[in-house]
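User: Structure tokens for both sequences below?

Assistant:
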Amino acid sequence: MSRRLFNWLIVLALIGFIMPAGATAEGDPLASWTPEFDPSGAQYTYILSNVDHPSIEGIAVGYHIRDKVWERSKGRLYVDFRPLAQLGGERDVLQKLKLGAVQGMLCSSVAAANLAPGLGIVNLPFVINTFEKLEAFRNDPELFEPFSQAAASQGVTAVDFTGYGSYGWASTSPVRTLEEAREVNFRIAEAPVDTDLYKAWDMKFTVMPWPDVPQALQTGVIDGLDHTPIVCGITRKFNIARYFTQVDYAQGLYIHLMNRRWFDRLPEDLRKILLDTIREESARARNLTQLQQEAQIAAAREDGVTFYQLSEQDRQRLKELAAPVYEKWGRKIGEDYLAKVRTRLGD
């Protein structure tokens, strides 16, 4: 099978399981996002990739950036947003980003640490785990700037981020306690921090690409997901996993990564337009993400999904068990920087 065919099979799988309620498989799932302008005359093109569906507010931001940049640049710069893994999976696109074949990427926070360990700070448990902490982190230059430059040696800058909500456990049986969680085989992302974390927590887990999840969940290969209410709701995982434990140990992010060499070649006025627009629309998307999470939880409850809140005692136990992960990733990220982030954000 050719790589191109394989990538399109992934796209078809994502369309089938991510399509929002009310959409039809017969139509183009991105038809409503077609630009109302002709981009063929643009002087510069910024290809921006993502693997998910713009029903998620943190992904829809790509289209909002596209339209606003086009208007502000008077048609000189076109943001060619490509969601739904049109350009391949995240590992493939990260390589293309470094080479400059793709100029931008809304990369999931769990995958971003594969590019640079410093980006993994947002995945560490109970460090940047609330919407309030996330905003404080983004708006403090002493905290955000080292994160932004974590992949500088790869020629990549993290210019901003949006989100997809608070991490917890979706499962096919009730998980009310840490003891019950240890009976579940959780799917986790292909992410180094997550692997270390679940080992430290002494929990069963399976590392699995996202397109493989629907079948694995339906057949019982896995019976739990490490994910967020937004994603579980929009991608219909709640149709099978009818329980969700709100652990709230991390915020899921889409980190806006940019090829620095391409950016530096843009005229100065277009650089400002692009960065200003990304900053404004990312902040707006983060606000909408919190509202979307509340809406998805309400909709899931109405549909019969049961939600549990992990006890503070169990959450504290998870933090204690994660001590080796803090130590290992502190060395990779920078111990002083990690300590500053934890202290300033009130961890």
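Moving on to the next sequence.
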Amino acid sequence: MKIKEITNCIETIAPLNYAEDFDNVGLLIGSYTTEVTGVLVTLDTLEITIDEAIEKNCNLIVSFHPIIFSGLKKLNGKNYVERVVIKAIKSNIAIYAMHTALDNSFIGVNAKICEVLGLKYPKILIPQKNTLKKLITYVPLENAESVRNAMFKVGAGNIGNYDQCSYNTKGFGTYRANENANPVIGKKGQIHTENEVLISVIFEKHKQANIIQALLNAHPYEEVAYDIISLDNINKEIGIGMVGEFDKPKNETEFLHFLKKTMQTKCIRHSKLLNKPIKKVAVLGGSGSFAINNAISSKADAYITSDVKYHEFYKAENKLVIADIGHYESEHFTKNLLVDILTKKFPNFAVVLSNKNTNPIYYL
């Protein structure tokens, strides 16, 4: 099995197109054509992670956080990033990271937090913009169904809980083939009028290449006319953070103790308690202070995230309880999510959960 087969599986749930612009995701070290001996899944890639991969005969590390985040101008081993990269290359170990691509997945980091906490009816907190596109094409009447089905097969026309969605309008198209053409319908040098169907479908942008290829393969014309339009429509299944609800509300103290135990954190920093029940909860793994206002707008009773600064706790504005549970603690169940996905896809292949704690923060 090659690395590309593993990463293709990961990218079905976390397409790299949806990573934030500032991020560095994908295969950071290694070649997609390398044969995989085993996969080690980790939150961070450190020198001890490379050692663990060697010990467990894993030549591919699937890491949530990217070890290479900004550009490397030298490789002298002067800091931990350079040392990890050098050690990985010397040991022929590939490193793949997905970070915000998985953050923005409907079944990614924040979905896992909701699952662990038992939050029901999860919805995206901040839908990502510009993720939807529309394709419009023109097909001879007798070929319309086969062309539609070809595009549906690779994911066109999916809208929420519905699939195979399209809009179709009958009309006629005109064209004239020149002497170098090889028209399927009509004759060279003559204007031809053909009864056609205008087919319009919506799709998520990461599917574009496959949908266009399916269109070209199924369409009878030598030259296929189509338009791709970027949409401002909100995609409710791609974006960062989530909002869910407990079956039964908890009082604030009960909620905080439950959160501490369930997320396995040694410390929770929180804003002022409001003496109100906690039922609706917003979550955002990692550094999420930028989304405090979004959590308030969602009518959440509490917001779980990390890396909240002193003055940012004031942003609660007595409207919800902010609970900072720690960066590592908010994301560490991500490893389990990835292992479960890869194990189900490749049940007879070695997928190993790292047992190293890579949290750089300690508590007294």
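User: Anything stand out in the second?

Assistant: The mean pLDDT is 96.
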